[in-house]
Amino acid sequence: MGELDNGRQFLGVSMVRYFFLLWLAFGAAHSLADTVWLNNGDRLSGEVILLDSGILVFSTPYAGRLHIQWSDVETLSSSKELLVKEGVDQLERSKELDAAGPGMVRLVNGEAPRAVPLASITQLMTPKPFVEDFLWEGNIDGSLDMKRKEDDSDKLRFKGTNRLEHGRWRHRANLETEYETENQVKKEDNYTLEYSLDRFITEQWFWTTGYKYQRDRFEELERQREIGTGPGYQFWDNELGRLDLTAELNRIRYDQKLQDDFGVTQHESESLDTGSVNWDYKRVLWGSRFELTTTGVVHFPFTDQVDYATRGDAGLRYRVNDWARLSLLFEFDQVRGLEETYTEKRYLLGVGVGW
Length: 355
Known about the structure:
Helices cover 8% and strands 68% of the residues. It is built from one helix and 23 strands. The strands form three sheets. It has a twelve-stranded antiparallel β-barrel. Strands 1, 2, 3, 4, 5, 6, 7 and 11 form an eight-stranded antiparallel beta sheet that branches.
């Protein structure tokens, strides 16, 4: 019985080891389904992420993301579906790519395979279905400004964005906070929270509803709440970037903190209705090393005192690796009314993370 039990244990361990090795082999084969052959004779296994601006972004389990000059590629193969762009506007969906000799690749799309020169291909990207079933994208950028002179000051800022898509729904949540002290005395303390929910009606049209809350403990305008709703249009959303425009009707409520002639603090509230146009643009450049973004809104209040009010930002991020970013962000606010214009500009240079 002892030998039989030992034999059973040995057989069980062997079967577990066999299935484990089989699982590893299957996983490796699945994850390393794409192959790139270089002109110098090297061969790389991994996954094609993106081709843009003459740079092929290729992910490997042993060296992370590689940025390969497209002119250095001899041929390649891929088992996943890709959008292949030739020249300026010829776009084709290919179910897989097969190697086809030096300087060529074969597109397999269910019909007769077609061999094309690599030099004619300007972009490769993974096609995105109608609102990806599940997609989470976000960034957190931060900066610290320290001054040591007659007056010591420390200023800390954080800005975070999140986008979560599933089915026909999309959630967008933003957080911005700013904290400043001068000679260890608090001079600025504010934050902004934003949330919007989008429901896609077609592949490009959607309806959005959003809420925004601002809190400032040191300014006269100490609290602002805003709710808005309206239609939106998504021009594109793929591996290279996105562009959304929305038109909304908004209700804004202001809470102000004022002092009378006797130094007594009083609180007043006021509401305002506006129409607005919002934009959200993103574009990756140079093989996804750089990311150009701009978001903003222009309000047109239903009052004669204010012509318009706009706020927005434009940023450039550099991808250090898969998660670390260096960022340069420019923010602006402008209000026009009663033949006067008020403008405020801010710059944020710092580091961040992205996913």
